[in-house]
Design brief:
about 240 residues, mainly alpha, three-stranded antiparallel beta sheet, 8 helices, about 10% strand
Length: about 240
């Protein structure tokens, strides 16, 4: 996250490279990338509300068109996986958006869930800004550019790994998975967690991630793959 606001020209150029749109209204763009803690008087919260709806509409149409035989339940799973905070934060990091966020010093060292939510919120705000600046077509181009590949992944309709493991463990072992942090490494602003999951009568498994939740999901997925509940799938 940026400690100081960049110039309008630099900010516009950076977003143009990411989104393919030149902003005439640079104040709108700056607001989309600014957290209230920066003390600039305007922040992204209202834009986040609008961006969430635009993203949901475009992704819902994308999933609907790409899966003509899928029932409503599968479509919902695919939609939810593509618009959750983890996916938005992941894409924000991939495209370099995270480095453009303007926030106060107390937020630049956020970790875990709060850091995920901040990046996800700004992603939604940027989508709203694209919609307001260039219309639905501009927002669609951006969303399809970064979400379409994910929407076609074989694993896109999988449920949350922890939820899946809990239900499976209850069915086969009448047990509840227990998670424990085994190790934490790295600096406070960029930690790596190793988490184990244990189920009575089964071999434990471990997973790693940049938050405890992410590591728990990885550990749960490791058990599901090992036990054959999930298959290791690759995109064609």
């Amino acid at each position: 996250m940026a400690a100081k606001p960049q110039s309008d020209a630099d900010l516009s150029a950076a977003v143009e490279a990411i989104a393919g749109l030149t902003f005439a209204d640079t104040a709108l763009l700056r607001r989309a990338l600014t957290h209230a803690s920066a003390g600039e008087g305007k922040d992204y919260q209202r834009l986040e509300f609008l961006g969430d709806r635009v993203l949901g509409l475009v992704v819902a149409q994308m999933v609907f068109e790409a899966n003509p035989r899928a029932p409503e339940g599968e479509l919902s799973l695919r939609l939810n996986a593509l618009v959750n905070a983890e996916t938005l934060a992941e894409i924000a990091d991939e495209i370099g958006l995270s480095g453009l966020i303007v926030a106060g010093s107390e937020l630049r060292t956020l970790t875990g869930r709060k850091r995920v939510n901040l990046r996800a919120d700004v992603m939604e705000a940027l989508i709203a800004a694209l919609y307001l600046e260039g219309g639905l077509e501009a927002a669609q181009r951006f969303i399809r550019r970064y979400w379409e590949g994910r929407s076609k992944a074989p694993t896109a309709a999988r449920r949350d790994a922890k939820t899946e493991l809990q239900e499976w463990a209850h069915q086969v072992a009448r047990a509840v998975p227990a998670y424990a942090v085994e190790k934490r490494e790295g600096p406070d602003h960029d930690p790596v967690f190793e988490v184990s999951v244990r189920i009575d009568g089964m071999k434990p498994a471990t997973g790693t991630g940049r938050s405890k939740r992410e590591a728990e999901q990885a550990a749960a997925a490791a058990v599901l793959l090992r036990e054959g509940v999930w298959r290791e799938e690759r995109e064609a």
